[in-house]
Structures are given as structure tokens and as C-alpha cells.
Amino acid sequence: MQLIVGTLSTWSLRAFMCGQIADIRLDLIPINLEKQGYKAEVLKYSPTGLVPALLVDDLVVHDSLAIAEYFNECSDGALYPKNQSERAQARSLCMEMHSGFMNLRGRCPFTFGDVAPLGELNEALKKEIERIEVIFAQAKGPFMFDQAGAVDAFFAILAFRLSAYGVSLNGKAGEYQQSLLNWSVLHQAIELAKGFK
Ligand SMILES: N[C@@H](CCC(=O)N[C@@H](CS)C(=O)NCC(=O)O)C(=O)O
């Protein structure tokens, strides 16, 4: 399988991390999204012109969430909890990340450069961080459920971003944030992202 990924693309990193957890062998095709003409390059592979996209023979799976689901099916359910209720919760959380937190995404772009701490938060940003605090405090242990899964992959990048912008969560939420930051799969994704040119 080939995974088309982009520079500083957090969605690409989430798909990559899900592949690592599910132990899927991937050939990565990185595209520099800052280079002129990048769109034509992406469109060679991805019908939406967006990354990530997964190529499996003639099949193109586009969108990080669909890729996570595909990896889950290829790995006999490695990305979600075995318990049905937990699995539904896990999917709800992945989808909440996938379609939400727009203020945070806008205000805290993913970067390896130096950034100023967030400082005074507006109401919308405050609400999103409070919601993340509630979600993170639900973690059963170092991972959201018993084993590392899609939810952890989806939130690890956010944990990293918050930390880069000087936001360390408190209590149980802070413990989960820290375990994500210590997680080898996140480190692999970060190393990968740093290597993209
Ligand atoms: N919902 C999509 C979002 C994909 C997306 O927005 N990708 C960005 C990079 S993170 C992209 O390809 N940007 C290039 C562009 O907008 O031209 C997913 O989860 O895969």
C-alpha cells in the first residue's frame, strides 16, 4: 500500500500513526505542500486534491478517517476497542476530532518553528480546550482505552500542538497529554514530518 502524505499535514500523520498501530506496511509518497504546483502533484493520486490518500492497487481511499477504518479492517480490528460500547465511544471521539476544534486548528497551526504561548484565550478557544480537558481526563491509562488505537493517534498531534503553544493540561487530562507526548508512535510521526521536504 502507498500512503500519500504532505508536509506539515497533521491528517497525514494521523493516517501514518494508525498504519503503525495496525502494523501495516506502507510505502510513503511525500508531497511538499509548500511548493508551487503541489496541487497538480496531489491530484495525480487523490481525487480531492488533499492528503492523505491511500493507494491499494486500483483503489484510492481518501480522507484520514476512511484510511483509519480501512487499516482497522485490514488488521482484524487493531485500531478500536474490542468492547462494542467502547468502540462506539472511540469512533465518536475520532469523529469529534475529525470534524471539530476549528478554533484550535486555526489558532495553533502545526509547526516545528518557535511559537508564542497562547496567552489570553477568547471564549471559543477556551471552550474547545475545556472540552479537550474533559476528553483527555476520560483516558483509562496511558491510552484512551486498554490499548493504543485510532483515538490516541487522532489526539496525539493535538497534545503535541497544545504543548508547543504552552498549554499543559491539569490532573488526569495532563497525565494523558503527557503519555501521548511520550508515545513512540508520535515520535516516529514527528521524525517523519521533520524529514519531509
Ligand atoms: N478531512 C480530510 C482533510 C484533508 C486535508 O485538509 N488535508 C490538507 C493537509 S492537512 C491538504 O491536503 N491541504 C492541501 C490543500 O488544501 O491544498 C482528512 O481528514 O483527510
What does this protein structure show overall?
- The protein has a four-stranded mixed beta sheet with strand order 2-1-3-4.
- Helix 1 packs across helix 9 (184-195) and helix 6 (123-137) packs across helix 8 (171-182).
- The model has no long low-confidence stretch (mean pLDDT 96).
- It is α+β, with helices and mostly antiparallel strands and 197 residues long.
- The relative contact order is 0.16.
- The protein has helices spanning 10-21, 38-43, 64-74, 84-99, 102-107, 123-137, 150-164, 171-182, 184-195; strands at residues 2-6, 27-31, 53-56, 59-62.
- The protein folds into two domains: 2-77 and 188-195, Glutaredoxin; 84-184, Glutathione S-transferase Yfyf (Class Pi), Chain A, domain 2 (Up-down Bundle), CATH 1.20.1050.10.
- Helices cover 53% and strands 9% of the residues.
- Strand 3 (53-56) and strand 4 form a beta hairpin.
- The structure holds glutathione (GSH).
